[in-house]
Automatic annotation (TrEMBL):
Pathway: Amino-acid biosynthesis; L-arginine biosynthesis; N(2)-acetyl-L-ornithine from L-glutamate: step 4/4. Keywords: Amino-acid biosynthesis, Aminotransferase, Arginine biosynthesis, Cytoplasm, Pyridoxal phosphate, Transferase. This is Acetylornithine aminotransferase. It catalyses: N(2)-acetyl-L-ornithine + 2-oxoglutarate = N-acetyl-L-glutamate 5-semialdehyde + L-glutamate. It comes from Pseudotabrizicola sediminis. It is an enzyme of class 2 (transferase). May also have succinyldiaminopimelate aminotransferase activity, thus carrying out the corresponding step in lysine biosynthesis. The gene is argD.
Amino acid sequence: MISAVLPTYNRAPLAFVSGSGSWLMSEDGSRYLDLGAGIAVNALGHAHPALVETLTAQGQKLWHVSNIYRIPEQEHLAELLVDRTFADTVFFTNSGTEAAELAIKMARKHHHEAGQPERTQIIAVEGAFHGRSTGAIAAAGSEKMVKGYGPLMPGFTQVKWADHDAIRAAITDQTCAVIIEPIQGEGGIRVVPDQCLKGLRDLCDSTGTLLIFDEVQCGMGRTGKLFAHEWAGVTPDIMMVAKGIGGGFPLGAVLATERAASGMGAGSHGSTYGGNPLGCAIGAKVTEIVSDPAFLDAVSQKAAHFRQGLEGLVANHPRVFEAVRGQGLILGLKCVVPNTDVVKAGYSRHILTVAAADNVLRLLPALNIPEADITEALSRLDATATDLESAL
């Protein structure tokens, strides 16, 4: 008999009732150190006082009115993002998947309005994850994502990871955009080198192709910059944002230049819930905190501490861990044993991690995780590895 909740998730045998900072409390009263942060969502940890205060204050005033009317909270958050990024304009969504759908529409509409309606093809990279809508899975193209869901939305080509020649060869006079994650999250914490992002920007400029960055997982301060592409000194034409921007509240956005968004006039896109007063009030508070230079510097310092410790774990447990990947606080441990075994073994040590492709263990702690909690995390990961070694 099917469960009341559609059984699409392979859930861990854990349920949590409260959280504070980087810690979660389970139903039986046990405390767990959370290195997943809701898959990079809880950027400021659980129950951050400033977010609780903002949620309470806005919740007592106004939650939802719809985009039939002006929404001052939405305008404020849009202005913050425009001021702090490459973007000229912002559309708010409820999720990264919805942001992906708009990014696809915007890129195609741009070329249509420019008198190039034949430019509808979008190039993506193998191992990518852009969400689970039909458009997003068509972009990613992996068998796991698309099997059984055909016919898929046409117009997507996938090229191999880090194959510059393949991207160059794939661009034709029908290409409208290239979509890429500066750091693949689900794909195994694979970082696109700065010089590759620069080369991709140059290639798109020379061919009139729009460049879309998916920073749903790697953005909002996770690398020590507000957005990961800033390290390369390049900017996209369109960018997808979600996860951390709401600090746990469902919120996403598409940021774009005026040129890229030129085809998106009144009636061209919409959302019932997207950009509501409650979500945008919280998003503005997260953005104000995370974009502060001192906060971002602290992320980099904590990341250096964490990475150094992880390198030590690799050296001390070569039968469990192979290498460290990532940048800032979007880190991964390439595993020798199955990564899911490491995740499960961590439960007995009361530490929460997330599996990714390529047998990688994802480590996505809150950006404000205290140094003491990083030290504790390393200790628990060390004990987890020792437990696994004893069973080999």
